[in-house]
Amino acid sequence: MVDISAGMDGFAAPPAIRPKSGRDDRIMLAFVIMIGLYLIVALALPLGMMLWKSTEVRSFSFAAVEAEVDTGAGFVALGTLEASAGRLGLSDEVAQARRGPSLTAAQMFPRGNFEGDPVVSARFRIVGDMLGGSLDIGGTKFVQGEWAEVDNTGLRRLVIRAGTITSFANFKEYFGNPALTQSITNSFVVSLVTTLITVFLAFGFAYSLHRTCMRFKGFFQTIATVPILVPSLLAGLSLVYRFGNQGLAKGLLFGGSIYGFWGIVLGCVFFTFPHAMLIISTALRISDARLYEAARVLQASPTRTFFTVTLPGALYGLISAAFVVFTLERVAFIRVCILRR
Fold first, then answer.
1. CA dist., res. 18 & res. 129, Å (int)
2. Confidence class of residue 81 from pLDDT cuts 50, 70 and 90?
3. Which among 281, 261, 104 has a CA at the least distance from the CA of 203?
4. How far apart are CA 69 and CA 116, in angstroms?
5. 8 A C-beta contact, residue 43 and residue 91
6. Phi-psi region of 151 (alpha: psi -120 to 50; beta: other; left: phi over 0)
7. What share of the chain is helix, strand, coil (3-state, %, to 5)?
8. Sign of torsion over alpha carbons 290, 291, 293, 298
9. Residue 104 lies inside a defined structural domain of this protein
10. In what order do the strands lie in the sheet with 140-141?
11. Are 325 and 225 in contact (CB under 8 A)?
12. What 3-state class would DSSP assign to 158?
């Protein structure tokens, strides 16, 4: 057998064919770049700044402030506020700053006393990094190494102001609060249940509109899209007026209550149903009719056609509707406030 590749060694390889970009391609690229820049400026930058600011935590720098107190026998060195925090009734630096961004000498010497003795005078000075905070008397700031001294009548005028540090303490406190973590869980469960119910009902409704011979399709589609035109507040109020404690149709609940988990889910389904229905309707409307013709020619049963043609064709519409409903329900504060227990 002859090796054809060996005979081709003397020939140069043909040049690669590279498609040339036309005017439409350049316009499309420009629009994509513009959209990308818009998303960066309108979404990414504000979100990044918000997350960065959330890591800024107010904190005192007790190790950077030295104190002395005079109870009638001359000034006695207390060391830094960090070393004498227990004697002065101070908390952790971050915890103390959460109580208030400023700390006066009167707070460290309650009722003008220190360990049972009346305070004649007190003085403080900066000996380290204040993390952006300051030490002042009546608005006059003192520099590092300079004593700020007041007598017992001016303890309120001597103020130590907190600075800021970069820390995840805010997130730790947030997720460490059982009530807040439970609210996150409740929001996720409500959104998930609402998404499952809404997408299921919306798909059945859209399927009836586009794959059956039911009458008055236009009328039913118009009625189904009405909730998208009304404020989200109306969904909760309408359920309260119908099924609330004094609702017109309260008896239809057979002793149940509209307030609580299922009432919130019902209100959320009412509001998000038209959004999901429109998305799924579009997916069913643009599905390839040739696939249905092929299924009919191959004598596929309606059930098999549904699972092999209809569902795969509407898959992206179902996924899009699920994301839209789930996102809408993550911020459904108004309906939750109306229908909560």
1. 62
2. very high
3. 281
4. 13
5. no
6. beta
7. 60, 15, 30
8. positive
9. yes
10. 102-104, 158-161, 134-137, 140-141
11. no
12. strand
Q: Concatenated DSSP letters for 261-315?
A: HHHHHHHHHHHHHHHHHHHHHHHHHTS-HHHHHHHHHTT--HHHHIIIIIHHHTH
317 plus 261 within the same structural domain: yes
Domain count within the chain: 2
Place of tokens 């498609």: 19
Which of 171, 187, 219 is the last residue in one of the domains?
A: 171
Residue 19 located in a structural domain: no
| Paired residues of 161 in beta bridges | 102, 134
Q: How far is Cα 252 from Cα 257, in angstroms, rounded to an integer?
A: 10
Residue 122's H or E segment, with its range, is strand 121-126
Residue in 314, 308, 315, 306 with CA at minimum distance from that of residue 287: 314
Q: In which band, very low, low, confident or very high, does the pLDDT at 201 lie, cut at 50, 70 and 90?
A: very high
Averaged over 199-220, what is the pLDDT?
A: 87
**Structure-token pair, residue 80:** 């830094």
Which value, to the nearest 10 degrees, does the dihedral of the CA atoms of residues 314, 315, 320, 325 take?
A: 90
Q: Per the structure block, which two tokens stand in for 2?
A: 């002859």
Residue 324: count other Cβ atoms within 10 Å of its Cβ.
Answer: 18
Average pLDDT over residues 120-128: 93
